[in-house]
Amino acid sequence: MDEEMKMNKQVRQVDGLSLRLSAVADAIPSGRVVADIGSDHAQLLIALAQAGLLKRGIAGEVNEGPWKNASQNVNDADLQHQIQVRRGNGLDVLKVGEAEVVVIAGMGGHLITSILDRSLHKMEKLERLVLQPNNGVDHVRRWLYRHGWEIDGENLVREAGILYEVVTASPGDPDQPYRGLPLPLEQAYEVGPLLWQERHPLLLHKLTEKLEGLDRILQQLELGRSPEARQRLQQLKQTREEWRRWQQWLQQDEN
């Protein structure tokens, strides 16, 4: 078994889906009404329906091209009775209480939180959020914490050399997953409280990528001569030391 497959063994591959979307599918409770916002041609909902895991699906697309493609895919799969494709911005495609699970996957963290911010009244009766930000996952976790959503699941998958995170949350106690962590809250937003608690096998890879990114920025700042650049350099060096310390803790646990 190669290294990437070994690290991803916690994810059940779903027929017709990439590993990234399979991880999203794994986080969706069976037999629910699921709204997929920005539905990626309705692939996720179609795969769930074909696997007998979907009660009803709503695919939301804001642009005409993806909306037409999603509609065609649902028609081709003969699933019009089970999946509706609607055109609209974010959660505007939903009525209050219509969906039990909302999925937003494959977008940046800032965009995901802006979609949620615009539709707080649509979320009052939701059972679960399943979020897969391509970047800015700390913004997603911060938003969940500040709006009373308790993170109840986190996963990492690696596909074609890229790490993807899936975060699920339900209405509850937002402090719960962060209790007892050695990490400051702001850093826990980036690391992932459940990823840390469970010592996810890909978490060390995530921290290593973070350190490599900080090193690249530090190399550029070393060339700066302004007082602002020097100040920023010192701040980032301190940040790097903190991340290095968390990395060493994980490495010690693995040994």
TrEMBL record:
This is tRNA (Adenine22-N1)-methyltransferase. The keyword Methyltransferase applies. One of its GO terms (biological process) is methylation. Keywords: Methyltransferase, Transferase. GO terms for molecular function: tRNA (adenine(22)-N1)-methyltransferase activity. Pfam families: TrmK (PF04816). It comes from the Bacteria. Gene3D superfamilies: 1.10.287.1890, Vaccinia Virus protein VP39. The keyword Methyltransferase applies.
